[in-house]
Amino acid sequence: MANNIWYYIASGKNDAVHNMALDELLMEKVRAKEIPAAIRLYEWETPTLSIGYFQKMRKEIDIDRVKAYGYELVRRATGGRGVLHDKELTYSVVLPEDYPDMPESVTESYRILSHGLLEGFRNLGLDANFSIPRTNEEKKELTNIRSSVCFDTPSWYELVVEGRKIAGSAQTRQNGIIMQHGSILLDVDIDHLFDMFTYSNERFKSKMKEAFKEKAVAINEISSRHFTVEDLYPAFKNGFEKGLGISTEPYALTVEDEKRLEEIKEKYASDEWNYRR
């Protein structure tokens, strides 16, 4: 990948609407060539369930349970399944589709961009590797979506440690721009996560929960050291720089950025967007 200077934003904790709107704002700025590309690391003020662009909110989500927990609920611009954003660091990467050496294939671009995650986990001393299906049976398994919950099955080129998925990512491409974001889990409350989705019966829910435990893992579950989110910022900032062959400069939102951000927030705060499916 070409050696370029990207902008880096460590935006800390914000609410769900702000987080989704800022990712979209960065897409607009890269599309307008106001910035070349960006890496953003961020957190969530309140635990939030984000659902994929194509998920059916009322069919798949126990909305009353989400509200009872006091969690926020937002629809992402990216596909994929539901993610509980709580004890984690979230990343987003925004760049042009025609960026040098960037494959046209979504799957192959995952492989390129996920090198930043790979190096980040290695900076933490974890032996992370890519999940790559090698047989027709494994490929068929990755297309068999059995649950509305993300992290239950490793997808192509996602990161695994000891065979268990440790990072989940989703990507969208809009008008020449790639935006990929995802979760880097420190810890996860599996009971709360599965309580927020609807299942045909309790037996099936229990089966999916056990499968999740076998196929997904959080950093502090497998590390001999207890990491905090503050430990993750430098590990993954440096990881993306090394993995993508770039250097970064800090970026601060301008007055114009802040104004546009408020406009975009209206979209992610609206029922029209969040309950559209």
Automatic annotation (TrEMBL):
Tagged with keyword Transferase: yes
GO molecular function, one term: ligase activity
BPL/LPL catalytic domain segment(s): 33-248
CDD domains, A to Z: LplA
Transferase among keywords: yes
Classification via InterPro entries: aa-tRNA-synth_II/BPL/LPL (IPR045864), BPL_LPL_catalytic (IPR004143), Octanoyltrans_LipM/LipL (IPR050664)
The protein's name in its UniProt record: Biotin/lipoate A/B protein ligase family protein
Species assigned in the record: Salinicoccus roseus
